[in-house]
Design brief:
The protein is mainly beta. Helices cover about 10% and strands about 40% of the residues.
Length: about 80
């Protein structure tokens, strides 16, 4: 563990604000944040992101993957219609 103060990042999941203290976020964590806000349960989700850092400014986050985050990054989670 560093003695440095951990940076907190403000992100948005379907317009709901969240604060995280990691430099990356996984597909599973984004979906957990979405479900915690009353998201609809589904087996499959499509997770798109925008306003990201230079390394990954926008795109789609697949299950089992993670992306670097920055303040103000936005995630959009939607069910694929599969149940």
């Amino acid at each position: 563990m560093d003695d440095k103060k951990e940076k907190k990042f403000k992100i948005f999941v379907n317009q709901d604000e969240h604060e995280i203290d990691t430099h990356t976020i996984s597909y599973a964590r984004v979906v957990d944040l979405y479900l915690g806000e009353g998201g609809a349960p589904s087996k499959e989700y499509l997770v798109k992101y925008s306003h990201g850092p230079l390394e990954n400014p926008s795109g789609t986050l697949a299950p089992g993957h993670e992306v670097q985050v920055k303040d103000g990054m936005r995630f959009r989670v939607s069910g694929t219609g599969e149940s």
